[in-house]
Write the structure tokens for this entry.
Amino acid sequence: MNRPLVILLGVLMLGAAVFAGSYFAARHTCATVMSSTDDLSWLRTEFHLSDAAMARVRQLHEGYLPQCMKMCAKLAAKKAEVTDVLANGTNVTVGVQQKLTELGELRAQCQAQMLQHFIAVSRAMPPEEGRRYLAEMERLTLGFHEEIEQTMDMSAKP
Amino acid sequence: MKKENLADEKLSALLREPRLSPSLPPRFQENVWRRIEDAEAPAKSSVTWLEAFVALILRPRFAYATLAALMLAGISLGAYSGAQSARHEAEARYVASVAPNPLR
């Protein structure tokens, strides 16, 4: 290989190393500086909340968490019951159907409670930001089911 | 002495005889002049385009400017990517706190 080509390859490698080094160093530094251990930090930055609005949102959040935990515990217990019933037989019996219905109802209750919390939080924000928050939270939490349902709907069509 | 005079006369006679000169190749004169011009012209540079390019990028001003531009581009893109990553992480943390997986 001739000398100019070797030099050119060396220069290209050096350039790539400089770019990659700068990129990863800046990425790591920025991610570290901007990361927070506060669960609500996203709300402050994304929805431009003032300290007063943040205090109201935090109060609502802390009030909601115990209810959420309680519901989660109930859901976990119900899921364990469904698993037990399913393990005892190979058919979808009335008992299995009953447990599945109860699990579905419990999930619906949880979702309703969650939506109620989102609405309360959105009201604690400036109106425009509140609307945006509510739409975003519905997309992030209930949108998942909608996507599945849409997929099922499409696959059901001939 | 007499012998020497005889030899000179013979030589002179030989020299006076007509001689056949070989014919020159076509465009002989033109070719001769071209070779003379080529020989007098300055030597052609053997530097290839690659060598010229390498010489250009190794110039200090060009090299420092390129390095600075690469660093700036890397830092800008890295900072943007880091900010996006931190934002997504914060969003996921909040969503996980208010809507644990069984609820979604």
